[in-house]
Design brief:
Elements (H helix, E strand, L loop, with lengths): L1 H12 L6 H8 L6 E8 L2 E6 L3 E6 L13 E7 L2 E6 L1 H4 L10 E8 L6 E8 L1 E8 L15 E7 L2 E6 L1 H7 L6
Parallel strand pairs: 2-10, 5-7
Antiparallel strand pairs: 1-2, 1-8, 3-6, 4-5, 6-7, 9-10
Length: 176
């Protein structure tokens, strides 16, 4: 990437000759990198674009919701905002007997002036972030996971990419 910037400056100023190979490099469209947050829920690895995540917090004091569906762990207070927590691993039958340790707080921007919806996703482990320009593996995404929009390849391992709109369709939570 620094070489491309150098070539662009040199070509614009006319201070250096640009070879055909370098000219081709200048004309190729660059694919922007997307950064993902990787986390584990149960036995599965998941990822969300970093821009969809507000923050990751240690497991808070959770208030159970009476008559809530099994996937809704409860709600918690995050600096004055009430956040519902869903457990994707529990509903897929992958939840171990160990309680989650973190909450990935995701933000879904609503259309118009409706603001944002915040949703907590129970996580056993936050693995870190990964930047890539490679597209998601949509064709290889599991068909039985409706909230998955593809898979992300990281080295030799895969992570299920979550689509927040599909997550809310699969795990409808009441708006508070």
């Amino acid at each position: 990437m620094p070489e491309q910037t150098h070539l662009e400056n040199a070509a614009a100023q006319g201070t250096a000759e640009v070879s055909p190979e370098q000219l081709q490099l200048l004309n190729e469209p660059t694919v922007p990198e997307v950064q993902y947050c990787l986390f584990r829920a149960g036995r599965e690895r998941f990822c969300l674009p970093v821009l969809d995540i507000e923050e990751v917090v240690e497991w808070p004091t959770v208030t159970p919701v009476p008559r809530a569906p099994t996937f809704l762990q409860g709600i918690f207070n995050l600096r004055g905002n009430i956040i519902p927590i869903i457990d994707i691993a529990f509903t897929e039958g992958h939840r171990a007997d160990v309680a989650p340790k973190h909450v990935v707080v995701a933000r879904l921007r609503a259309e118009g002036d409706l603001g944002e919806l915040r949703l907590g996703i129970a996580s056993d482990e936050v693995i870190g972030t990964h930047s890539t320009a490679d597209p998601l593996l949509v064709d290889e995404a599991p068909k039985d996971v409706p909230h998955c929009c593809g898979m992300l390849r990281i080295d030799e391992r895969l992570a299920l990419a979550l689509d927040l709109n599909k997550v809310l369709e699969s795990f409808p939570v009441p708006v508070i």
